Amino acid sequence: MIFRPSIVARMWDTWLYYHEGKHYLFYLHNSRADVRWDGMSVAVSDDGVHFDDHGPIIHKADDAVWLGTGMVWRVDDKFMLNFSEERAGVQEIFFAESDDLLNWTRLPDEEYICLADSRWYADDPTFTSQRWDCIWALPREEGEGYIGFLTAVARHGPAGLCGTAGCVVSDDGRHFRAAPPVIETGVWGDRVEVGAVEKYGDRYYMLLGVGAAPLGARQRSRLPAGEGGMFVLSSANQAGPYELDPQQAPFLSSSPILYTYFARFYRYGDELLLNHHTVPRSGHAGPEDIYFSPLKSVQSDDGGILSLHWWTGNEALKGKAMPVVLGDSELYGLQEDACTLAGGQARLSADTGGLAVLPVKYNTERGVILEAEVTPHSTDAALSGAGVFVEGETANKGTLLLAQSSGQVGVGRYDGYAFRPQDGKPYSYETDEAARWRLLVRDAHVELYIDDVHIQCYTMDHNSGGRLGFAVEAGSATISNVQAWEMSL
Fold first, then answer.
1. Model confidence, pTM
2. How far apart (Å, rounded) are the C-alpha atoms in residues 357 and 470?
């Protein structure tokens, strides 16, 4: 939502490294629109919000079909980077080094190569699907050297359930050799991907990407339709085993498509953040509209369950203050005498449902942030709620994000008559208590936070027309303290 390449055609996986006051954003790229992932690029920021694109740093070898994602770590006075390349259906991992994080030199393949070990992992595509991709390297907690975690496929296990979190070890942080997997085989599908591992408190946490839950593994997803997302596994030991806590919800889960994917941890001083990219819908935005998304703050409760929150550094996104005139809102489905617009607040009431759309047309191509206090009031209706509205190119039609009395924020299309949720996230409100809503909109991409808790990243199935508003269903709600800013991008 906040950055896309200006030098290459498009981006995909992202990861960051913080050094001497600067945020270095690395991303997998397509150098041209008609090629597969063939390199990596870097962009640099002083604040984690505004990035300057420096362009390509690594290109795939001529005989490789494509290049896979990686991660950056430091060994002595050098920075290290790993990446995979596929040849004849087999992935192998290679390395590069740098003095300054901007200029990288590929290390000799014959010495610096990491291979899957057939004792534990599939290493032949004719045997089963093979993955060996993206080492996430950390200094060993006990003893010298490094340990790494990566995407792999176990050699033995139930058909269709052999995806695993592989492990590698290194004595010097430059030469890595395979070690046994660190999650149980036969639990997940073949297509899992390891995003990152970091320590928070006294536990280690692993991000495990799951595009969809296959037959036999749906019970692990905790999601009604087996949707995809980044699952959070944890372990008391750095070397595992890593397991899923039944109380731990996945990060950035979505249905029916992945609106975001492949989140990674980002260690920024004492803070643990999360980064990821945002994906357009086919037919409504081009592949070039893949964006790097705003960073999220990772926090833990007393039981060690992680959640995502608004990162205070994102306040730098707020540029010029934009006008908000509640009194001139255009009403749809709301009777004039049932909608009070005065004193800087609006009380919306509807027996069925209705909208109050702000009269200002915001520049959503550049990006806009809308904040408001939303207070749903008690009602006898079986299902009621309140929320925000992003209008499309036709009046009274667009996308609703509606906090419902059923305990969910429903997200989906509103056609001027019916609300058709396409996704939903858990959220329970207390009636007559105000909650601070924060909505980010850029192009077709939307993010929602309530009281600084991340609720959803969502890609609309229509273009934004520029107008925003508020919605109420089968009850009443008060909207107050409304503010809006143009994104400073």
1. 0.95
2. 6
Query: Which residue, among 162, 276, 167, 148, has the nearest Cα to 216 in the 3D structure?
Result: 162
* Residue 127 Cα distances to 66, 85, 92, 116, 183, angstroms: 21, 19, 17, 14, 21
Element (DSSP H or E) covering residue 165: strand 163-170
Provide CB contacts within 8 A for 315, sequence distance 6+: none
Cβ pair 71, 25 in contact under 8 A: no
Chain CA centroid to CA 459, Å: 12
Beta bridge partners of 399: 390, 413
- Name the pLDDT band for 60 (thresholds 50, 70, 90): very high
Tens digits of per-residue pLDDT, 192-237?
A: 999 999 999 999 999 999 877 777 777 666 655 556 789 999 999 9
Length of the chain: 489
Q: What CA–CA distance (Å, rounded) separates 373 from 478? A: 8
Strand partners, 423: 411
410, amino acid identity: G
How high is the pLDDT of residue 288?
Answer: 64
* Residue that wins the pLDDT comparison between 160 and 275: 275
pLDDT of residue 223: 59
Joined together, the tokens standing for residue 398 give: 């667009």
Between 126 and 293, where is the model more confident? 293
| Number of other CB atoms surrounding residue 397 within 10 Å | 17
Three-state secondary-structure class, residue 74: strand
Alpha-carbon gap, residue 141 to 146, rounded angstroms = 9
Residue 112 pLDDT grade (very low, low, confident, very high; cuts 50, 70, 90):
very high
Q: Determine if residue 77 is left, alpha or beta; phi over 0 gives left, psi from -120 to 50 gives alpha, anything else beta.
A: alpha
Question: For residue 241, is the peptide bond before it cis, meaning its omega torsion is within 30 degrees of 0?
Answer: yes
Cα torsion for 3, 397, 394, 341, to the nearest 10°? -90
Strand ranges (E), 398-452? 398-404, 408-414, 419-426, 435-442, 445-450
The SS3 assignment for 315 reads helix
pLDDT band at 340 (very low <50, low <70, confident <90, very high): confident
- Quick one: how far is CA 281 from the chain centroid? 15
Q: Which residues pair with 8 in a beta bridge?
A: none
